[in-house]
Amino acid sequence: MDHPDHTTEPSIDIWQAAKVADVSALRYHLYHSKNAREFVNQRDHEQDSTLLHILCSQNRQPFQALQVLLEYGADPTARNIYGVQALHSVCLNCPTPLESIRLLLKYGATPNAKDGDGWTPLHYTARFCPEPLQSIMLLVGAGANINATDASNKTPMFCLLANGDFHVIVQWMLASGADTTITGEFLDQKTGKTRLGTVLSQATKYTRLESATIMLQTTVSKDAIKQAIKVAESREVTLRNKDADEKQSEAQMKALERLLIIRSMLEARLNKDTVTHRKRTSFFQFINSSFRKEKTATVTIQ
């Protein structure tokens, strides 16, 4: 007995079916095609996209339709003109992408695939997923490089900090080997020039107080702290400089409060490290001086 989806001809073609995630229409067109594998991997003429690209870029919940396309042989590693694969699109467009990510990985999607800007699926998930922890854990568990860098040399943690103050995820990523010393490029909106900074600078830029607190409890270089302080100074000017007749919103005021706290933490840590360094230097100088005196005294006695 034929499946109901195989007998009723739909009113839309397969491209439109992918666009609206119409499972019945997709099944019909693929079942009645002469070569399903070739048919399901055809490309459009605009962006060299496959049906998978269309489905995953146009739908917030593509799982069922995604399953149909993959069962008929859709290639999950196919790229469009931007180097984007279906896994990138799912991580970008789906608010709850976990099951779709798992399905694509099952059918051979590449967890470390980079698009034209060097973004991996992990970058997209960290940046755009409202609740990214489970998806991040799934991708890393499947082999995604937690320290993969994009064209601006930024890792997925930079993206996570742009998304929100997910301090629990920051802790998990640190425990999983995330490198906080990697420096990415920051664009200065006023000068148009780029400068370098670590994820500590990113946490400062977006006033992620909890995440910044966690990072400052780890080993942080003086250069990284100084870079973050410069970011704080620039960000403070931006938040304070409002037109005379324009009041600061409550969100801006809270952001400024967080920023000032972060800046004070950075300065305190820098001063503490400087004092500690001076004490250590003085101690070693004292030891060396004492050693030289003892050596001189020994030579004199002999």
From TrEMBL:
InterPro entries attached here? Ank_repeat_dom-contain_49, Ankyrin_rpt, Ankyrin_rpt-contain_sf
Q: Which SUPFAM superfamilies does the record match to this protein?
A: Ankyrin repeat
Q: Where are the ANK repeats?
A: 47-81, 117-151
Q: Pfam families, from UniProt? A: Ank_2
Q: Which residues form a coiled coil?
A: none
* Keywords, alphabetical: ANK repeat, Repeat
Stored Gene3D superfamilies: Ankyrin repeat-containing domain (1.25.40.20)
Instruction: Output the superkingdom of the source species.
Output: Eukaryota
Q: Which PANTHER family match?
A: CYCLIN-DEPENDENT KINASE INHIBITOR 2C-RELATED (PTHR24180), POLY [ADP-RIBOSE] POLYMERASE TANKYRASE (PTHR24180:SF45)
Name of this protein: Uncharacterized protein
Q: Which organism is it from?
A: Umbelopsis ramanniana AG
The major lineage groups are: Eukaryota, Fungi, Fungi incertae sedis, Mucoromycota, Mucoromycotina
